[in-house]
Amino acid sequence: MTGTFTDTRMPPRLLAPGGAPADRATHETRYGPLTHTDPAALLRTLAESGLTGRGGAAFPTYRKFVSVVDAARRTGRTPVVVANGAEGEPASAKDKTLLSLSPQLVLDGLRLAAQATGAGEAYLAVEDGSTRLETAVAERDDPFPVRVVRVPGRFLSGQSSALAQHLSGHTALPRHQDPPVREQGVRRAPTLVQNVETLAHLALIARYGADWFRSAGTPSEPGSALCTVHVPGREPQVVEAPFGMPLRRLLPLEGTGAVLLGGYHGTWLPATEAAQLRLSAANLGAGVLAALPADRCGLAETARVLRYLALESAGQCGPCLNGLPRIAAAFHTLAVPGPQGTARDDVARWAGLVEGRGACHHPDGTVRLVRSALTTFAAELDAHARGLCTATDRTPLLPVPDHRS
Ligand SMILES: Cc1cc2nc3c(=O)[nH]c(=O)nc-3n(C[C@H](O)[C@H](O)[C@H](O)COP(=O)(O)O)c2cc1C
Ligand code: SF4
């Protein structure tokens, strides 16, 4: 997997040219030293930058920092900061690519986050690559302990409360959102969890300022974002692109029937609709863009992903534990040409029953995918009901981990 930059009108930001991992010396030569030390000034710059989280929800980063600072003041507890590099989404490779090419940028962001919130300890949570990252940490002189922690390779491991549970010595499963992790997270301390890409952007904002950050993207959605682009017959590619870039410049849409936008908690769109869209924090999700050729079956792709998502349910909440496998099984019926019985109505009904009923957003993200598939592949659904499938190529496109497929 290589990282590339897409916009020739703007110099690379997170993904430096050359594609070689940067050690500390190379990193400092490339980006310059990190001199920002005043927490109040950093928070002001962060607010002016308009940075939003790149872990899926696009939450304003400044607001989360302030919540953690306020919770620490109220409770008298020293906060904890966590760089979330779990990347549980199987179709995403942006965080692993960033950590492999520019680990020091992420660690700079983690240090800044700790300074701005007054944290006493910091974690970098990853599924793999911990030895290489420990070496990167050892090259630094951070004034507080930074620990690299391995999380289980599961879809839910990167959910913020699951991560806080894991770092507190418990199983990496989500817990109820109230109180939120920013108030009571790791060992009940106010905890700032930020995606590793968000932290890397912060490291550049601290160096070059809010105006520099805003010189890419749009006024309402400033900056660039990392995306994992899936095109059939090609290795997935991680690219950096400014918000506002037309999607058709990121994905070749000729011969494409539909596009998956955001990842397995994202949405399917007809290619004709995707061709009118621009890259936006509102549709970016986990940064996955996948082009499904017109000769493949979107229902079969969705059914495989839904089975995986159902198996990844943490099994703690009834609607998720019972509902997701039922949705996945009914969707499997829809994906096979032939009699569908009540499967279409069942999927729609169960989607309504699980939505908003989980401790975490896993059911909601799954329902989003289901509903978009029912709409985008409506013609294919009708064909399947008549016993026909228009797909001529049955090669799976979207990656689903083997051991759970
Ligand atoms: C089911 C589920 C899985 C998630 N997995 C990840 C993940 O692997 N990596 C990540 O950064 N955020 C993940 N998130 C989002 C985190 O809960 C959290 O919002 C995010 O790390 C915050 O960082 P950000 O504000 O910088 O985006 C997940 C959320 C859900 C609901
Ligand atoms: S909603 Fe599902 S995945 Fe989330 S905590 Fe409940 S059972 Fe686990």
UniProtKB/TrEMBL annotation:
Q: Where is the composition biased (Low complexity)?
A: 11-22
- Domain named NADH-ubiquinone oxidoreductase 51kDa subunit iron-sulphur binding: residues: 302-384
Region (Disordered): which ranges?
1-37
Name the SUPFAM superfamilies for this protein.
Answer: Nqo1 FMN-binding domain-like, Nqo1C-terminal domain-like
Q: Which InterPro entries match?
A: ComplexI_51kDa_subunit (IPR050837), Nuo51_FMN-bd (IPR011538), Nuo51_FMN-bd_sf (IPR037225), Nuop51_4Fe4S-bd (IPR019575), Nuop51_4Fe4S-bd_sf (IPR037207)
* Annotated source species: Streptomyces liliifuscus
Domain (NADH-ubiquinone oxidoreductase 51kDa subunit FMN-binding): residue spans on this chain: 47-202
Protein known as: NADH-quinone oxidoreductase subunit E
Q: What are the entry keywords?
A: 4Fe-4S, Flavoprotein, FMN, Iron, Iron-sulfur, Metal-binding
Molecular function GO terms recorded: 4 iron, 4 sulfur cluster binding; metal ion binding; NADH dehydrogenase activity
